[in-house]
Amino acid sequence: MSLLELEHLNYTYPGASAPALRDVTLAIEPGEFCILAGLSASGKSTLLRAACGLVPHFHGGEFAGRVRVAGLDTREHGPAEIGALAGTVFQDPETQVVMGTVRAELALGLENLGRSPAAVARAIEEVALALGLSALLERSTHELSGGELQRVALAAALAPRPRLVLLDEPTSQLDPVAGDELIWLLRRLNQEWDTAVLLIEHRLERCLAAADRVVVLEQGALVNDSDPATFLRWAGEACGPLQTPAARMFAGLGIEPAPVGVRQARATLRARGLLDARADERPTAEPDPEPERVGGARARRALRRRSATGSSAAPALRMRGVWHELRDGPAILRGVDLALAPGERIALMGRNGAGKSTLLRHAAGLLAPTRGEVERGGRVALLLQNPGDYLVHERVAEEAGAAALARAHLLELGARNPRDLSGGERQRLALAIVSDSEQPPAVLALDEPTRGMDRGAKDELAQWLEGLREEGSAVIVATHDVEFAAAFAERVVLLADGRVIADAAAREVLCGGWYFTTETARILDGAAQALVPRDGQALLRTRMRPRAAAAVRAPRAGSARDAQPEVLR
Amino acid sequence: MSALVVYRRRASPLHAARASISALYCVALSAAALIAAHPLVLAGLLAGVLLAGAACGVGRQMLRTLRTVGLPILLLTVLVNVLVSRDGLTVFARLGYFGPLGQVNLTLEALAYGLLVGVRLVIVLLAGVLASASVDPDEMLRSLRRVYPGSALAATVATRLVPVLARDAQRMAEAQRCRADAETGAAGKRERLGIVRAVVAGSLDRSLDVAATLEVRGYGSGARPPRLARPLSRHDIHFALAALATLALALGTRAGDFASFQVYPLLRLPLGAAAVLAALALPALALAPFLDRQGIAP
């Protein structure tokens, strides 16, 4: 018997004009690790809600077809009964933690299943150890950061050891280390305990290697259901934004098959003799194949010159020895020194709780340092994590001026209610709101702007930011998305425990590491500081050229040899 | 969030006691305020509540609540009573004829009664703050869930929703400060109203999210959490005794010499030894269980 069965599922939310799910038929077997992929608003979260029984019991709407979880029909059994078999984690960790302390949160699901106190205590200890939550067990949930809340929500779902785990972008708020660890923990649960996993994830490069199967939704309909390798072949032909960086790199070079993960990519390259670095390889940064990097590097060098000479030319932002110490609590920032040149683009990275959001709040003046100083070359516009927080009016036109709306391509939506906009439109509107002034901001700071975005939306955001750079605004983005950081930033600042532990060109910081590095860099082992697929392609082409030339020379030599006897004759 | 008093496990005897006993202690302080009538006794009780707050590490929050909420309530109560009460005899100001209020004479008795009611409300408020800060809501809800599962669900959604909405409001306020056209003064007030409207409008969605989480965690399955067998700790015993003694003393002040205290029609305030002793005994009783600080670390 399948653990999860969907039969001709059609579902329309109350008041919606179009169905969110169209004739979806799907079966997940025990022990399968299945990724649910698709662009934004393709119906992935709705499918997950149908699988845990919230659709239709909680949301209402028109429901046709059948959903069975371990044989229980969700039309007859509510989410509470389904919850005994399936652990569910949704996108927003804030509303998924319902108790006051982490320990009570982890105990809730177990107690609802009627487990004995000893079994509850043991399960809490084990899941806390597995997810690195032991130190947080007695903490109040309202004190936790977004990433910590996400881990607690996950632990609460996993603690009862459900047979099926339903996860909606569980790594969206996690740093690369915690994200990778989570995927491998899921894989371990899956392999050792036969737990089936249905995982929604935009960053497929993170989880594809662990998956048995990929299901793709498009406008509510199932358009692909295959193993990861077949999925990548399909994505290459039908849906480019779903391709992983490695697959894009291989596709650009005409190498097949598209690799499912770093290990397979390296094996393919090794077999072709393309993995070993040549002695004359140079970093791909100079000259840079992406023209936008050149100006940024110049700007950074200019800033360093200015800093070195003590020139009076003001940077867009300068922090000198900034500390943020909580009363009766820890220090969140510990003597941070940071300078941004006009037009510079910086990615701010680090583990959950490293102090990234706090640093951005200091940059924007929302917080005052307990020690040190912040010098601003003009207005610092800050886009916080949730763009919806900026939207307090009834019409889009009331939120920002016409010029700002036009820049965000939202002028034609002026009469709409901001709450009715799509996620991407909301973010553009929030960006229009914070940058709506005659003078462009000296610095635009963004906190985790790519959370929940597909690659198309990320590219769109990167283009928008590029436009701001041309106006002279420096841009600093706090992000866990290494691929976005590599594509967008010319410089990366790495924070750890409130301190800057690395501050250098993106190619230097993001190459050669284990976690804070891109898939391309992992595959190529940081060679030539190639970070993005285009860099990787350029590098591999240089490695392929001598082989191609040798291949061309070899037949010529052969011809000569063949011809020689004729001459001799 | 800074204005919101939330539970955090601290190194105090009250936090070390089980939630039901901590709640009993706070309820006893509130009930004593409602039972006692003598101003001196109420003053002692007010001191007791404030000292208990300080002893369990939430004195600062209690003083902030007293300043921002308690004193306005006290002033409002006094003002309303002085303006509308007709029962006092000792007039200290004649304000003349005021439309629907008619002839307004301000009396000493109305002022005293308003003060008494106001102080009672302030004590109840501060005892509530003490309970919010020191009673583990998870433990309380767990106990409630064993008895009234439906009510516990509503209480859990409500208790979780308060900090969620407070965070929403805080984030929105921060976001409004980040707007390029961030306003001050009257326009700033309009923005604040916008935030309140947005938070209220979003509260239904937020409560649905929280309720959905509870559903998928099996909250509606009807299973009762197992009973936790826990022996009474020294702090449980101390606070239970203090609560009972406080209630008994408050009931005692309704009899004897205390009973001769009256406000209307003419203020009579006997300040005998019993009243003074009771006024001193109440803060002592409130503070006594805090003296034993063994085994209080979180």
Which spans of chain B have pLDDT < 50 for at least 5 consecutive residues?
none
Q: Report the major sheet of chain A.
A: 6 strands, mixed
Number of alpha- plus pi-helical segments of chain B: 10
How is the largest sheet of chain B built, in terms of strand order?
1-2
Radius of gyration of chain B: 23 Å
Beta-strand portion of chain A reads 15-25%
Write down the Rg of chain A. 26 Å
Q: Work out the helicity level of chain B.
A: 55-70%
Describe this structure in words.
The complex is a heterodimer of chains A (569) and B (298). Chain A is built from 21 helices and 19 strands. Chain A is α/β, with parallel strands linked by helices. In chain A, helix 4 (102-112) crosses helix 5 and helix 10 (245-253) packs parallel to helix 21 (533-568). The longest helix of chain A has 36 residues, at 533-568. The relative contact order of chain A is 0.10. Chain B starts with 12 loop residues before the first helix and ends in an 11-residue tail after the last helix. Chain B has 298 residues and is mostly helical. In chain B, helix 2 packs antiparallel against helix 5 (108-134), helix 2 (19-35) packs parallel to helix 9 (234-252) and helix 9 (234-252) packs antiparallel against helix 10. Chain B has a two-stranded antiparallel ribbon with strand order 1-2. In chain B, a hairpin with a 3-residue loop joins strand 1 and strand 2. Chain B has 2 domains: 17-141 and 234-291, no CATH class; 150-220. Chain B has helices at 13-16, 19-35, 39-55, 59-84, 108-134, 137-147, 149-178, 185-216, 234-252, 273-287, and strands at 91-98, 102-107. The chains are: A alpha/beta (569), B mainly alpha (298). At the A-B interface, helix 3, helix 4, strand 15 and helix 16 of A face helix 6, helix 7 and helix 8 of B.
Structural key phrases:
heterodimer; A: 569 residues; alpha/beta; 6-stranded mixed sheet; 21 helices; 19 strands; 39% helix; 20% strand; globular; B: 298 residues; mainly alpha; 2 domains; two-stranded antiparallel sheet; 66% helix
